[in-house]
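User: Fold this one for me? It's Histidine phosphatase.
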Amino acid sequence: MKSRKTVVWLSTPAIMVVICSSLTVPPAPPNPSLPPSTTPKNLLNPSVSPINRRNLLSLLTLSTTQLIDFALNPISPPVATARGLFQMPPVRLTNRYFLVRAGESEFESFGVINTNPVAKTSVDSGLSEKGKKQIVRAAFELKEMGACENGCWIWPSITQRAYQTAEIIASVNGISRSFIVPEYSFLDARGLGAYEGKKLESVSEVYESDSISPTTKPPPINDGTPNESVKDVFVRVIQLMSILETQYSGDTVIIVSPDSDNLTILQAGLIGLDLRRHRELSFGPGEIRFVDTSSIPTYKQPASAVYKCLNPPNCN
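Assistant: Here's what I get for Histidine phosphatase.
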């Protein structure tokens, strides 16, 4: 009886594993019909299982740690792990964040509501002269705060006024345009439906509805303008934070929104404030706010029974 060893080398960046299996092969009886160098497959010891090709390929997909575990305990399957969707309020933040509202737009200078995403890249959605001055001041304020001393990523909405804001911030702070990452949907201005084209003052009616329930939507309109509730925007900003907290680690990210509602709803979620009260965190055009969860003031519930929220910021 001869003993034969089959050696398989599995190479990974950190470790090379050798799997040896001893196969006992009885001497082959003479068979004049076969060439001298040919050994029939049925001569292998049937009590020893050969290496399965599928199992071998599976091994090649394992991580270094899993390979070691597999070698020590081949019966135990690897345990799958995955990061869930970003939770509000977060246990911790991997990055540091600055929230910036874009400067005044041309539409806003005319006192007109404009939230239709179809027009978000038009010239009229860009910064007004007053808006440009607001953002120059904001950019120097960020520089004084040392926001981009060690580099930063700027995430603006693709909306014209937000992207122009990002370009001014990058220029003043010496950041290459390659670090501007345009965001195409999660940071769109909140769609106000039938309020589209009305005077800016009428938006107060929307906030009155927000204070009753975050699921109330503005009246719809048939021109393509979405009518979004606070909860709709909340879902969008959670998706945005999920991307940022997964894509970056230990970085500085400047989020540039074309309107206030994206930022107030995001900040309310980060600090665990009842979403119906997001308006209390209102951002003015060109305003900057550093997200510091360790120094967020405690918001007291009103004495009245208007707000009944057991699980902020998710309240009905």
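One thing worth pointing out: Residues 96-293 form a domain with the Rossmann fold fold (CATH 3.40.50.1240).
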